[in-house]
Amino acid sequence: CALAAACTLVACDNRDITNINDNPNAPTKVTPQLLFPSAVTDVVSRARGGSMDLTFLELWSQQIAMDRFTDEDHYALRVDNITGYWSGFYSGGLQDLATILQQNTAADKPNIVAPALVMKSWTYGIMTDIWGDIPYAKANTGDVSAPPEYDTQKQIYTGLFADLKQAADIAGTTGTTTSATASYGTADLIYGGDMAKWKKLANSLRLRYGLRLSKVDPSTAATQVAAAVSAGVMTSNADNALLKWPGDGTNDSPYFTTFRTRDDQHVSETLINTLKGLYISISAAGDTTFDPRLAIYADPIQSSPAKARWVGMPNGLVEEDANAIPLTNTSRVGATLRARTSPSILMRYDEVLFDEAEAALRGWIPGDPAALYRAAITASMQYYGIPDATIAAYLATPRVAYDPAKAMSQIALQRWIALYNEGSEAYSEWRRTGVPALKAGPGAITSPREVARRSLYPSSEQSFNNTNLQAAMARQGNVGLLGRVWWDTP
Amino acid sequence: ALCAHALHAQPGVAISGRVLSDAGAALPGATVYIEGTQLGGTSQADGRYAFTVPAAQATGQRAVLAARRIGYRATPVTVTLTAGTRITQDFTLVTTPTQLEGLVVTALGIERDKRSLGVAQQSVAPEELSTAKDPNVVNALSGKVAGVEVTNAGPPGGSARIVIRGENSITGNNQPLFVIDGVPVDNSAPRNTGFGGLDYGNTAADINPDDVESVSVLKGANAAALYGSRAANGAIVITTKNGRGSRGLGVTLTQNLTFENPLRLPEFQDVYGQGSGGLFSYKDGRGGGVADNVNRSWGPKMDGRLITQWWSNGQPAPWVPAPNNVRDFFQTGRTSTTSAEVSGASDRADVRLAVTDLDMKSMFPTNTIRRLNTSVNGGATITPKLSTRAMVSYVQDRGHNRTGTGYDGNSAIYNLMIWGGRQRDLPHMQNYMAPDGSQIAPNRTTTNNPYWDIYADPNDDTRDRVIGSGQVQYKFAKWLTGLARTGTDWYRQWRWQQFADGNIAVDYSGGAFFEQNAYLRETNSDLLLTADNGSKGRLGLRASVGGNLRSNLSKGANIGTPHLVVPGTFNIANSAVTPQVSNNTSQRRVNSVYGQAQLSWNDYLFVDVTGRNDWSSTLPAGTNGYFYPSASGSFVFTDALPATRLGGLLSYGKLRASWAQVGSDADPYQLQVAYSAGTPFGSVARYSVPNNIANANLKPEHTRSFEGGAELRFVDDRVSLDATYYSKATTDQIIPAQISPTIGYTSATVNAGTITNKGLEVQAGLTPLRNANGLTWDVTVNFAANRSRVTSLYPGLQTVVLGTYWGMSVEARLGELYGTFYGNPYLRDTQGRLVLANGLPQIDQQKVVMGHYSPNWVGGVQNHFRYKGLDFSFLVDTKQGGRLFSTTKMFGNMSGVLKSSLWGRENGETLTDGGAILIEGVNADGTPNTTKTTSQAYFNALFQLHEPNMVTGSFVKLREARLGYDVPARYTRRLRVSALNVAVVGRNLHLWTNAPDIDPETAFDASNVQGIEFANFPTARSVGFAFKVTP
């Protein structure tokens, strides 16, 4: 009878007990309005600030230099950090975006799809520029059976152009069904649901990536640049794509988060000397007018508070040489840029103008390169609230004034200056243009001792996707620190 | 269970006497009965027993009267039962440290004669648990049972990990099930963030060693299949003491008092002080001076030269070493354990009440651990057919200022041991707070003053726990017994951490606090029906069927904030930012039916079969049931074939074999993708795709295990040998397999992977001395070698990474042993020469296997000497083989605090000098290196390299020693006590190892990620006294 009792007790609900296995802690379905802000904040905080910019991209573009823990500054990359960046992008924001794009169609919900395509392209642009060939077309499928193949950077750029074109084409249109007008609204942390601005950002990014092919494939570059500009790019600082952090203690600017307890990064000597007008390749003799952005980009050194003085930290020192320099003797990143609410920059109007200036100079689009160049510098300075009179004075200084003979490098240098705090772009533009002429620091472990030209692949791919990784490495040739990505031709 | 019969219709045979241990002490709890009957009694606190054989059953026949007690060898004598007579029979029972024979507790709490078991079984006597009492009962098992490996995480009150016969599961729990009086209890380590946090210990540590009557170690699926899924890793079956056998009032008082100090600290250098490149000058601790926020000891030589220091108010002060600035931070620990127990019994009922107070003031200043155990165990025989028993135990476990572990800027140990200047002296450091409440610290940018950590940022925790069970047993017939039992394990844990305004390591401006509440409940109900023919005749038959309902519930609720408005008010309403709040619930149910049958022939041949079917809530509906059987046999060949005794050389010989399978379910909520909530961005809510892909089609995983062995005893049992070989495999494991994140997830829940464990266990016993004058010397040896190998994984998957620290992965890698290290070696050319850059070693980005954490073998040797009332024992145990990734070495050399970092410092302290060290190797182009470098740059370059920081995991420890004395009766009578034992005890008394600077028996926590070490809290060496008084 005990057996019967046991069976009665036990057999009563052997099937039904699985009902308690519905997860009470998290939902199994969510809307794109919940995923999109997660995706945007994820990819932006990974690419900007403490994650990648301050740990190597801004060091390698020599806008920031390490004063402590100088490993990455002399190119001794910690491969597991690289794994973290790589893994974070794919399984973080990119997967949120992929889920949105899998669950929503352009025909049905264009204003849900368009911003997701733009953010996906922004992210993949940064990733391919530092890693070269990466999984793209077959990434983020959720298909566990086989890890994705790597696409060539050329294929990825083709994809970026197509996605950005589609995004610009559908942004602001009406879909085919009752949910046709669905949009992100306030869940759009960049533009608050303003689809006209997403359209401009899509075209502006297409301009950015088009120009990046200027050396490797000038005809595609020219085509994409012209198409992007004629489709309508940013037209004022009001169009800037910025992520404005609430600064509420949980959503703080990545720069703030990095610097609040640490002081390991100071402004690079290369950047400060450039802003001081001392940079050799451009400056006219005797011109010591400071770039008015200097006081915003960098704080005066603390060892002489009475007199505003800016001193940069040299890049690429070994630990003990860096440690020998008191932190009060070199400049910290400017206080406003380190503020809790300091915005992260996805793309700004001034970059668009610099790109247009270069494109006009190359004859790819109509327009006056000189005017565009001046407008670009003006927009950059206006972004930082610099008075028009100061801007005008700066534009009039001999080394800044447009000089047709040096126009290409003037545009490149000014764009590099303007791209402060956008390490990925400053680094890519330096690789494309060679301006400014960066020199590797004395501790550089590259051989020959030159500035690194790409990141290493993450070690995790050796473990989990090695066949495809090896194929991608083999076809790219040198994938060491001095190897070059496809568009970075000598 | 035997009950004293109290029917005196007419005078029968009054049998009485006293049971003593071979050490001469009264032995309570021994059963004395007439074999083949149910007539008998149990010895009480003074060792006395008494029972009566009814006249009807005393017909002048000869019978065997035997005394048995768990942990002692059964002792039979022959008596003649004649009605109306009295028999006085004393017994002296000899302990069997290796439990050669006699009663043992098996699965479901069934007591069986060891000879009938087809599986290896080892028991630990309560005396062995309390030889040199460790507050954590898991640690007390170390070295005492073959095949059991214990790793202690180190901090006072911290967790210990126990694994039996190697790891079965790739990412799941690998520790055995703990069962107390038939009720499974929790041994999780909730929020055991041993790395970079606080280690709250494993919850089996709540078990009070003083309450333990016996511990049976069921080594894996073969012995434990009846306990179901969780017993695939074996089971630790604990029976608690009860009041049976007491007559009148039995009272026992025990007091242990031990003192602790660090067994080993790293060897520090005392030549160079803080700084970098040989330079240092303090200005503001923020980098304003020369290297004054560089927390390393690469500064000037400490030769008494005058340098401005952090405490010297801008004035130069002598630059001299502070050689004891780590050792002196620790205080002498003190652990006091006070127990009182009262027990009593009538012939129908018994009860035992015990209270224990563990009061620990640890080596870590301000840290205290307090544990109060109260337990009641009582039983009653209501009618001859109906008996009941109930047990309840309440535990309160309180911690104050537990030490942080691992890489944690708020851990005093971290701030003290790894970073800092060797000139920093504790007297100056002790001034940690300015009058305005701000922190005074040598470094103002990254690390706290360790005294700030302990005084300004306290933590507290309390666990209130109740374990209880009740059972009713009914004898339907002489051969048929029914048992109903229900039990629960229930606790709440509250944890609190607060941080004052002024923390330097983390921005907690305004102050911060974090509060967590955890709740856990497991309930089990069993019905069990047992038929037993009482082994009448030559054929014995015993069969049981039963059912079990198991229900688990856990809940957690957390609140906290990193910033407060008004400093000092630690309330969530005072949060300056959006507070951090979260909660979670997890639920599981498992229904089971099981059965067991045992056949015996002539008491020398035994066959057991078991079967169990579980239905789990965590598997897909409809396919959530799974069955698993086991079979075993035992053959005592020396009884069956007396010729095999070889003329007495072999006194006992037994062969056994067993095959078993255990199925296992998934964790809750593995079948469906659930989105992760993010903190709102301003007012915008966020959800993201989780990192793991769920799997709607999970199947149960299975462990299949074979074991075979022999038990042999020679020369009148003075030499014994018990050897077991086993081979087992766990297949279809439910694992979060790591996948390429390019798929969009970092892991996928799959049914894949096989781990095989093969091993050999040997227990040997030797009695080199057994003199008539009472001197005995017993030696017990435990040896076990296990290889836990990953033999298959998910298709295309080479490895499952268990954890990664500083780029070093601990992995379950295909074809390798479980717990393999995968890290970066030196970059070498094809000829094996180091390839250098700038004169420094480089990292080879291609990681390689660098050994494994699991030892090649573990062993222990226990020596036990007894002479009259004197008792001396010591245990030496060892792990041999296996490696550790020592980040104490890596960080300590990089930061220049370790003595080993003195290498090459003397000539040339800066790179601008060109340096003094020429590393042998080649440049990228193959030419010999001619670039000199410095010691500082060299050790900095090794910082990212794993190869030079691998150290041996081998060690030998003098684990326990005890010298005890049973005060003879002639003195105890004068003291008006019936028994008194005094002892000197010690634990972790000495360590022998080739690992530099550390105790290799160390871990961050009790997880599967073992073998990584970072400035771990030093092992406590403990020495003290123990008193046991029976008034």
Structural key phrases:
heterodimer; A: mainly alpha; Serine Threonine Protein Phosphatase 5, Tetratricopeptide repeat; two-stranded antiparallel sheet; 47% helix; globular; disordered N terminus; B: 1031 residues; Maltoporin, Chain A; 22-stranded antiparallel beta barrel; five-stranded mixed beta sheet
Detailed description of the structure:
Chain A is an all-alpha fold. Chain A folds into two domains: 32-250 and 446-476, Serine Threonine Protein Phosphatase 5, Tetratricopeptide repeat (Alpha Horseshoe), CATH 1.25.40; 268-433, Serine Threonine Protein Phosphatase 5, Tetratricopeptide repeat (Alpha Horseshoe). Chain A has helices at 2-11, 32-47, 53-60, 79-91, 93-103, 110-131, 153-170, 195-211, 218-231, 254-259, 269-275, 294-297, 319-323, 349-362, 369-383, 388-396, 407-418, 423-433, 459-464, 466-476, and strands spanning 64-66, 241-243, 265-267, 344-347. In chain A, the strands form two sheets. Chain A has a two-stranded antiparallel sheet. Chain A has a two-stranded antiparallel ribbon with strand order 2-4. In chain B, the strands form 13 sheets. Chain B has a 22-stranded antiparallel β-barrel. Chain B contains nine helices and 57 strands. The longest helix of chain B has 8 residues, at 887-894. Classes of the chains: A mainly alpha (490), B mainly beta (1031). The interface between A and B is large, with 100 and 124 residues.
